[in-house]
Amino acid sequence: MEVLDVLNLGEIAQYFSKMAMFPVFDLAYYIVSILYLKYEPGSVEVSRRSPVASWLCAMLYCFGSYILADIMLGACPIDYFHNNSHILLATAVWYLIFYCPLNLFYKCVAFLPVKLVLVAMKEVVRARKIAAGVHHAHHAYHHGWFIMVITGYVKGSGVALMANFEQLLRGVWKPETNEILNMSFPTKASLYGAILFTLQEAHWLPVSKSTLICLFTLFMATTKVTLTARHSHGSPFALIESWVCHLLFGSPLSVAEDAHDHHAPPPAAAPAVPLFPAKTKEELSEGTRKRKSKKAE
Amino acid sequence: MEVLDVLNLGEIAQYFSKMAMFPVFDLAYYIVSILYLKYEPGSVEVSRRSPVASWLCAMLYCFGSYILADIMLGACPIDYFHNNSHILLATAVWYLIFYCPLNLFYKCVAFLPVKLVLVAMKEVVRARKIAAGVHHAHHAYHHGWFIMVITGYVKGSGVALMANFEQLLRGVWKPETNEILNMSFPTKASLYGAILFTLQEAHWLPVSKSTLICLFTLFMATTKVTLTARHSHGSPFALIESWVCHLLFGSPLSVAEDAHDHHAPPPAAAPAVPLFPAKTKEELSEGTRKRKSKKAE
Amino acid sequence: MEVLDVLNLGEIAQYFSKMAMFPVFDLAYYIVSILYLKYEPGSVEVSRRSPVASWLCAMLYCFGSYILADIMLGACPIDYFHNNSHILLATAVWYLIFYCPLNLFYKCVAFLPVKLVLVAMKEVVRARKIAAGVHHAHHAYHHGWFIMVITGYVKGSGVALMANFEQLLRGVWKPETNEILNMSFPTKASLYGAILFTLQEAHWLPVSKSTLICLFTLFMATTKVTLTARHSHGSPFALIESWVCHLLFGSPLSVAEDAHDHHAPPPAAAPAVPLFPAKTKEELSEGTRKRKSKKAE
Questions:
Q1: In terms of CA atoms, which chain B residue is nearest residue C250?
Q2: Burial B84-123 (b: 16+ CB within 10 A, else e)
Q3: Which member of B132, B170, B222, B283 has the greatest number of CB atoms within 10 A?
């Protein structure tokens, strides 16, 4: 019985890891990505003033991971643009999100239940991209473990890693921060995922690739959906990371931040701001929201 | 009779589209490009303080389109630099424009009638570059229409698209604007030209390539010469674009700008400035000049 | 006797130019490079806050020249990362310099006599890199003299040429200066070295490559060790360059700077500061130190 179960699970994982991403999952990916672009302050004005710049940003949001991975591997950066149907689909999504009359499409996809489904589907694509990136790099460099991790990382993080330059396209320049200095959850998870997939590719991890894809997708989808539902910018890795960084790199234990979340002492939170000037407005308002909700409790 | 005419025109177009660009037309291209570099505020000081930086900027102005196109197609970015004679010619032009005793060479080529001829010749090269870029991309990606447009666009716009990074080389950083956000006439025309040449390459445009090159060159040369003669930064596409953007992208109709040109109402023009903070000093003084001339009329 | 001497010298040069760089010399290169990274203001905080960003910066410091050269020749920028042992060695050095208990490793390698030996060894690697870069470009472009110079230059200068972007990774942005505008001694020497090696590769210089490597290494090592020992940021080329630039490019003769060094007239030195706003704090304090020592004399 057990054996059968395992066999079935393996088969399901196999089937899942072979499932075509285009067009349904890719569509969800494009919608969520361009939704995040519309959230960026100033992006709506740019879409009015310069549709070309807005379209380019949208393309970077949708295909940034392919562009970066191609740059990293020395290939043609716009190679992915020969997939005309993908570009046209992403263009249609961009048009609907930014210019649909009455903002109808935006309101539909930004409606939380719909958005949660789309976010989960986006994570399915992300996991597949990381696996494909690592596999591609493994094909080019058989023992280039670092190259495999970097390619997988870049494939998973996408536009976040080149956010500074994407913002520059919209006339925004924030040099004091970048995604490497202040990694968000998806970027961190992509890094860890890329390491896992590299270990699997090197046969140091005793699981099949399809199982790993399945498990990683499950983890990413559930975590990201939970975070999105709770409007949280936290990370499930925070506690472990805090300790590991403290032991390995002598980083200060982030007790201040934990206190800030659980007991909300305003005097302690105040000096934290100059230490992390890179905190975005979004994150800060997030903190305020949390503190208020704690007080309400 | 008609047939003969057509035949002759076709032959002329054929001959024109096969005409060698090096050295005469390329020389004009280098002269006009490096002239524009010298117009940039601060570029003369840079040429005194750091000739290497000035030379690099001059090379970017002359060969930026090749560099960008090579980057886009994943080739060696400095591939064009193996044409030693082209580089030496451009270097000679750079030296003469920046360091010629009594500024003699600069005064000659900046003399309006001479400059108009050179500008017209530069547009001949530009049209050929766009056609070559689209053709090159078509060779690499048979159905990559987007790649063909992007390559042609980049080949036609050249350094303008990387102006931010070219300025950075001279120690200037203006992140609040870029060529995509505020397209100048040559950049816009390159984009439209790239689309036309791509349509031709895809056989969706019922003209031969040589005829298209001929017509596009004629349009570019006459328009650019007219704009240069009138010291104008306007664009013949403005009216159509304004309506198309209004219909497709909900952009506000640029009546304010038209009013600003024709009736010059200072109170209406005033609030336009914070809306377009990216307007260069040159454009602003241009506007002032226009208003004054209108008043004089 | 003379012939024997020459033979022996030639053999020594031959042996020297074939000597393996890994691991001893490369180790010295990594140590000195990451030492310079630690000298950068803010880099220690970055190493505490974001070890990933710090590690990436360290890799850029160690392998920036390979990355840039690969970019220039259109190859995979992270190609060098398939040398796992090199990356692991550099990572170990980075870890020891930034996180060693009691800062022990840093104190050892920053101890002047040790540092001077390491600096000399680093210059051995630099000379070899320039020669390899020129040779590699020569292999790809037989008559591409400019490409050979650029590749050699980039191989010798390494991270300095992309300092702006390396700083951006650490959240620092100083657009008003860059290594091309204000070349330091190693960057300048790399440029001249690249020109020499290109001339040699073109058989316009009547010396064998091994002899040239030997002589260039000797020059670089002695000069850099002297400069490091004297904590000087000067350049042995200053006088010749000043005259050549004056004759060729009309640059003002740097008498003001010489006066500033020898007679220290405060009123003359004062207006020089706004002219060179790019002067680093280090250089300025250097100037102050020099003036003080002159006064003491």
A1: B48
A2: eebbebbbebbbbbbbeeeeebbeebbeeeebbebbbbbb
A3: B170
Find the CB nearest C48 among A74, A144, A249.
A249
Contacts of B143 in chain A (CB under 8 A): 82, 84
The number of CA neighbours under 13 Å toward the Cβ of A9 is 13
Amino acid at position B107, single letter: K
Tell whether C2 is covered by a domain.
no
pLDDT at A253: 81
Domain count, chain C: 2
Q: How far apart are CA A254 and CA A265, in angstroms?
A: 15
Calpha distance A71→C74 (Å, rounded): 10
Average pLDDT, chain C: 86
pLDDT at residue B187 is higher than 60: yes
Between chains, do A249 and C76 touch, taking CB under 8 Å as contact?
A: no
Mutation pick from B180, B241, B257 vs chain A, by most beta carbons of A within 10 Å, is B180
Residues A45 and A134 in one domain: yes
- Confidence tier at B81 by pLDDT (50, 70, 90): very high
Tell me the shortest Cα–Cα distance from C45 to chain A, in angstroms. Answer: 9
Q: How far is A32 from chain B (nearest CA, A)?
A: 21
pLDDT of residue B5: 61
* pLDDT at residue A179 in the model: 95
Mapped to the 3 state alphabet, what secondary structure does A139-173 carry? HHCCCCHHHHHHHHHHHHHHHHHHHHHHHHHCCCC
In which domain, by residue range, is A131 found?
17-236
Cβ–Cβ gap A53/B140 under 8 Å: no
Query: Do C271 and C179 fall within a single domain?
Result: no
CB-CB under 8 Å, C172 with A178: no
Residue of B nearest to A73 (CA): B74
Same domain, A36 and A102: yes
Q: The whole model's pTM is what?
A: 0.86
Are residues C244 and C211 part of one domain? Answer: no
> In Å, how far is A115's CA from the nearest CA of chain B?
25
Give the one of C72, C144, C180 whose C-beta lies nearest to B77's C-beta: C72
d(CA C136, CA C148): 8
Close Cβ partners of C241 (under 8 Å, ≥ 6 residues apart): C188, C235
Confidence check: pLDDT of C94 > 70 = yes
Residue C274 has pLDDT above 90, yes or no: no
Count the neighbouring beta carbons within 10 Å of the beta carbon of residue C266: 8
Is the pLDDT assigned to residue B283 strictly greater than 50? no
With pLDDT > 90 as the criterion, what percentage of chain C qualifies? 76
Q: By CB neighbour count within 10 A (0-12 exposed, 13-18 middle, 19+ buried), where does C225 fall? A: middle
- With 70 as the cut, is the pLDDT of residue C258 above it? no
What Cα–Cα distance (Å) separates residue B212 from each residue in A23, B201, B206, C18? 37, 11, 10, 58
Contact: C48, A144; criterion CB under 8 Å: no
DSSP assignment letter at A286: H
Residue C61: the pLDDT is 97
* pLDDT band at residue B2 under the 50/70/90 scheme: low
Residue B281 pLDDT exceeds 50 = no
Min Cα distance C250 → chain A (Å) is 36
Q: Are residues B223 and B275 in the same domain?
A: no
- Please tell me which residue of chain A has the smallest CA distance to C56: A180
